[in-house]
Amino acid sequence: MKEKKIVCFGELMLRLEEEGMPLEKVNLDTAKFVGSEANVAVSLATLGDKVSVVTRLPDNLVGHTAADKLKAFGVDTSLIQFQGDRIGTYYLQQGQSRQKSKTIYDRDNTPFSTLRPGDIDWHAILKDATVFHTSGISIGISQSAADVTFEALDVADELGLTISVDINYRSALWKYGADAKETITRLMQRADVMFGDAIEYEWLTGRKVPLEVTTANDPIDLDIYRDWYRELHAICPRCAKMIIGTRNQVAPTHHLLTAMMLNNGDEMLHSVIHDITNVIDPVGVGDAFAAGSIHAALCFPDDAQKWLDYSLAAATLKNYIPGDFNLAKDEEILRLVEG
Length: 339
Description:
single chain; alpha/beta
């Protein structure tokens, strides 16, 4: 039986932040190497999965250090290419009190953004893989990066892989002229498993999410969501597991998380509501959810409810872990799932 290998494709960046400080006073000592797909890969490796990252980094000390950071968590970095001399960066100021978080991207002309079709031998990389994971970030960076992403999807389809997609719409990225909604919709239509938050689904459909939970005991009327979900499934009929995560940020350190799944185009499932009153770092919660979903798909393929509950539990635990990486272990997540 073929070993279950996961391949994650996306850009790795440098994250700079100083909690509660303006961006111009960020301390370089707080730098972290992160990226949505890399975050997913680290989480999967922590859960014991075999996972590889495909990306391109600068061929200098910064790029090789970034790859070494992933390798230290058990991620296979042998497929990473090295070329160029600059790494993408984002500056984050975490929200305080009623102030929202601020993010500034600096990722033009990075080695990843200049990838071209043919630069990566996808047949060689994916021939022994089970799952291919990417997100809307990879297609939002540049036209050529989008072309390489769809090239990878073509090969993944040819080889019969399960395709996992995180919508990950970031309006600040789409500067190269493509229609973001049309391009992300094409990405979604290739997904077997898809995750997005409520804001992204609202943007895609133009319809407001029907309700927002305010306490852990709020009832969820799944019938309200059913038609809304079916509209999305009509756009993406291939997608067997369509998942929406919702977060109500009561305060910077008090969040409520829940999730729903449309299973096989018909069955509506809902997870419990997690009331988190001491959030440490909410960055990467969506990536933790995506990683939990991929892991659950391999472990509980015939139990959609446990799949959904596991994914949300993984995302919940990430709120207590500083940095972008979710380092929660499988046994910790299962304990939360089991109550």
